[in-house]
Amino acid sequence: MNAPIFDNAAEGYLGVLGGMGPLAGAQFALRVAALTPAPNDQAHIPVILRNDPRIPDRSTAHMAGGPSPLPAMLAGIRFLEASGSQVIAIPCNTAHLWYDELAAAASVPVLHIVQSVIDDLVRQGVPSGRIGLMGTTATLALGLYQRHLEAAGYECIVPTDEEVERECMGAIRAVKAGQMEASIEPAVRCVNLLRDRGADAVVLGCTELPLAIPHALRAGLGPLSDSIDALALAAIAHCRPGIALA
Amino acid sequence: MNAPIFDNAAEGYLGVLGGMGPLAGAQFALRVAALTPAPNDQAHIPVILRNDPRIPDRSTAHMAGGPSPLPAMLAGIRFLEASGSQVIAIPCNTAHLWYDELAAAASVPVLHIVQSVIDDLVRQGVPSGRIGLMGTTATLALGLYQRHLEAAGYECIVPTDEEVERECMGAIRAVKAGQMEASIEPAVRCVNLLRDRGADAVVLGCTELPLAIPHALRAGLGPLSDSIDALALAAIAHCRPGIALA
């Protein structure tokens, strides 16, 4: 492996607004390190991860009138800026329903997870076509992915409300409760039903879903865009412009 | 799973002085979340991970007169304290050669990774006996584990200098360069040679080594104390006194 020529001595941090959930936040930091070409520790991207799980639930806020997560997320953005972040990533898809408010409040760039997934689909050789969507009820009901993917020329295939509740939310709740074994089956079932309906690729559009289907179990599921890996690759591309990504 | 009765609304952060290496720091945050019994996001332990890989190499400082990592580590401790940490964990064994200076400079408790491993051996049903040690040349040459384990009544089995260089450092350097496949074989070979010499359990006493031998590949290797998991369990026990750990 070639040593990157990038000099990171004076580099600002990649700030990570995590905790939504905490496994997803940590997995994001892990994937940033794993996907960054670097010959030794010192050449990696400096990261501050604020993995604070006490942010009110994003889905409950949108779907059931629960307390807004926005004040807690804004406090997180302020902490990351004060800590020297030069760019911020938010490894939670549902949190992006508040993206405009968060980006407007930040004085540094905030990466957009849906744009990262679109870039990832193109990188995987799927620049157009039909995309199967998995995510929280709130993310799918409010059309977060549909809006951006359709603007980019894709057609979206969305599970029925009942399938979202049973397969997507079933897998997501299992991951959030640490029941990893129970999360696999509903998640894989949803990938397969979307492919049966003609999806050229499936988006794991909630950051718990990549934890439900670990990389080792993805063979045979066709092209998947993992929103954690997609955001990690976008962060690496931002911090190391010009570096060749796997 | 029962909901923990712990109220974390006013809880300080678990501060993590990471980056040594960055995969190990992120894996530590991941294992804290995975090993904490919690029914939903909000019940988890709030974590700040400063995953700054620019800290000078610990082994090079001790073995080859490289720049000291102490000033950079002290800066990290100060950052974590200023960020509201109530306890600090350092997922790097070699960094613990500077433990006394770091703990003396901190106004909050700093967990000791070797004590965490001893607690983990007891938890695994190995309260005495012969312990095989794997780690960096510096950690083993300076007797970090030997000192603490012998004080606790254990007998230590240490690989030869050549084996440490070839098997332990071979695996560690491969992980630090992101070459995970190349890291497995030397690490497993070292576990097996220590068991052949009579080890009742083997300590993965460098935080790159648990990444070289993922959990899924540990069947048949006998009792292993994974220094990342051991430190994560110690952190959970500190932050959630009385909680039942797996």
From TrEMBL, chains A, B:
Domain of life: Bacteria
Coiled-coil region list: none
UniProt-listed Gene3D superfamilies: 3.40.50.1860
InterPro entries from the UniProt entry: Asp/Glu/hydantoin_racemase, Asp/Glu_race, Asp/Glu_racemase_AS_1, Asp_race
GO molecular function (one): aspartate racemase activity
Enzyme Commission (EC) number: 5.1.1.13
Keywords linked to the UniProt accession: Isomerase
Family: Belongs to the aspartate/glutamate racemases family.
Name of the protein: Aspartate racemase
